[in-house]
Amino acid sequence: MIVVIDFGSQYNQLIARRVRENRVYCQIEPPNVDIETIRSLKPEGIILSGGPSSIYEKNSPRMNPAIFDLGIPVLGICYGMQFMVDALGGDVRKAEKREYGFAGLTIENPGRLFDKIEAKTPCWMSHGDSITRLPDGFSVTATTDNTPVAAAENAARNLYGLQFHPEVEHTPKGKQILRNFLFDICGCKPSWTMKAFARDTISHIQKTVGDKKVILGLSGGVDSSVTAMLIHQAIGAQLTCIFVDNGLLRLNEAEKLKIVLKQHLKINIRFVNASRLFLDALAGVTDPEKKRKIIGKIFMDVFEAEAQKIQDADFLAQGTLYPDIIESRSAFGGPTSVIKSHHNVGGLPKKMKLKLIEPLKYLFKDEVRILGKTLGMPDELIWRQPFPGPGLGIRIIGEITPKRLAVLRKVDDILIAEIKAAGFYKKLWQSFAVLLPIKSVGVMGDKRTYENIVAIRAVTSKDAMTADWARLPHKLLARISNRIINEVNGVNRVAYDISSKPPSTIEWE
Ligand code: XMP
Fold this sequence. Notes:
Layout: E1 2-5, H1 12-21, E2 26-29, H2 35-41, E3 45-48, E4 74-77, H3 79-87, E5 91-107, E6 120-133, E7 139-143, E8 151-154, E9 159-162, H4 174-185, H5 194-209, E10 213-217, H6 222-235, E11 239-245, H7 253-264, E12 268-273, H8 275-282, H9 288-308, E13 313-317, H10 322-327, E14 355-357, H11 365-374, H12 379-382, H13 402-421, E15 430-444, E16 447-460, E17 468-469, H14 474-487, E18 491-496
Helix pairs in contact: 5-6, 5-11, 6-11, 8-9, 13-14
């Protein structure tokens, strides 16, 4: 396995992803992890990630430099390389010429890291600091026009540094560089599979939980369902799931989910219908963040009240994924600004004093789907598109009323049926309808109409951090629009959203 030390780069998750794509397990640890923990993980290699700080700043993240004395190969990327250089006695200064974006890399000495890579190749740079002096025993292995030390190594100690980012798609040979590190330098074997992950995680959950009870908020989405399945396989009846119907679900969703969940996950589930509470509290509210806060607060209250009924529960399980953690960093005072207060990370009911278990927290959505399959879950659950916690509440722009919910439910049902029938459901990250707060004029038969407009949103994405609008066939869009306008009373116009994320977001609110 490989340990990745997280110095805070936005690309960290990509490093983890790239390592696992090579079927090598990797675990991400914070810089303050102690050396004994690292030693006990017995990693074949260590990757120091990039990060937004400058090493010469007072509070820049550092770790125990003893990491370089473990005899384990280390690859430092960007800030990770600068930390290594600084810790071993070299110098890092503010660069005269900062380098962002593509740069031409010239490999001076391929060594083992650049084996099988041509001498000139593009790379992706993103740094404002540069190495001005290498520590003893290091030599430059590659340069760019603006960065004389674009890569360096101390081959005798197996320490390597890259100023550029091998993990991003924009560095075309990055994958080969990482493979060279993993297999040639560290001697890893490509043997990690989801089966192995499931086995290790189940045994870890058993050890952590012992004979205590675990509570899980089940939404019916793939993340919480796979979490439930894993924990169920680990501790059986010690797990109780709580499903809260907030009145903002899709057409017949609660009923349909009940059937699927009971049939396939023979798990203890408590269904709570709290629609009235939610809809009453949302009456007259139009501000998206207010909606989220109200929905989040009532969810907590309802969930807590139900959870209190379960005696001796010590743990709360959540289906947090790795991108959730990254996107929510701002919630913990990180440098990025809060776009939407949407994720459940850190949303632990404090009063309940439960300990958190998040078995999927280092996984990506596609990995979770493979894991679900490995655990024997049906496609119907594994391939559900993500659905936000506030549900249709943030897809009705403006006020949420039972009438508007009914309109949107019908529209959404037609849309999803057509997307599925055309074979697009699995190919899209999400596809949904948004009810707008404006009306438009239309003509039906010979009559003037003045009715609602709905927007259709369909996007492709890997992890929701970026997304592109889907180029759905015109024929399919035509069928969707025809059916919606003909079959849903109160809608006379359908628009298709052609914006990508960024700069737009996936949801409209
Ligand atoms: P945005 O709209 O920020 O969404 O591009 C990214 C992903 O997050 C989902 N989303 C939410 N999920 N509560 C959730 O549980 C929320 O408030 C929320 N807002 C957005 C969205 O559906 C997409 O998958």
